[in-house]
Amino acid sequence: MKISAIQRSGGLAMITGSVLLALWSVLRITLLPVIQRVKDFSVIVSNQHWILISTIAFAGVLLMIFGFTAVYSLFYSRAGIIGFLGFLFVVTAFILEACQIAWEIFVYPAILSHLPSIPLFSESILMHHPMIALFRLIFQIILALGVVLFTFSLISTKEFHKSAGILIFIGAVVYALGPMISTYVAVSGVLVLSAGCLVLGRRLII
């Protein structure tokens, strides 16, 4: 199938977004005190590198939305309902993630600047709020469905090398389960997922 200029742009967006997300995962454990499993989240948010690292993630997520749209446009005619639902769930998950990161960049520092509000982070009041927990649950379910359905379509349609779908699936699973084992495991999941997305992006620009 002939690849249009917009699809090639989507491929570049996918590659750039993958690199940014991989960079985010590495910088997050090297510049922020997450390895030490700091219980006071305000210490992490108030870190001088917080906004920069979150902005990198924000840019990466936005680029990935465009990238996955371009990927889907290349095989949508053969993807069927499974591929469509997978695409819909994946993009929705990325949009929700972008919303979350936007709050981390613009709202979290504003909350911390108000002294009486610091306990919202230091005592994990905000993180343990039922609505926040509900948001995370909805996000995880949507992302899981999207990854399973979309990677299945990627592999079955054979428009892209099957390694892309396999890497994305494995990366997403490792990233989701990683925090229960080790922060390093979670980071490895992001790197594997990014590698799969790089394969997708390369297919669109060649």
What does this structure look like?
By secondary structure, the chain is mainly alpha-helical. It has one domain. The protein is built from eight helices and no strands. The protein has helices spanning 5-31, 41-45, 50-106, 108-112, 119-122, 130-157, 162-177, 183-205. Helix 1 (5-31) crosses helix 3 (50-106) and helix 3 (50-106) packs across helix 6 (130-157). It is elongated.
What structural keywords apply?
206 residues; mainly alpha; 8 helices
Summarize the structure.
With 206 residues, the chain is mainly alpha-helical. The chain is built from 8 helices and no strands.
- SSE topology string: HHHHHHHH
Beta-strand percentage range: under 5%
How many domains? 1
Global mean pLDDT: 90
Structural class: mainly alpha
How helical, in percent, are the residues? over 70%
Gross morphology: elongated
Uncertain residue segments: none
In total, the number of strands is 0
Set out the fold topology:
Layout: H1 5-31, H2 41-45, H3 50-106, H4 108-112, H5 119-122, H6 130-157, H7 162-177, H8 183-205
Helix pairs in contact: 1-3, 1-8, 3-6, 6-7, 7-8
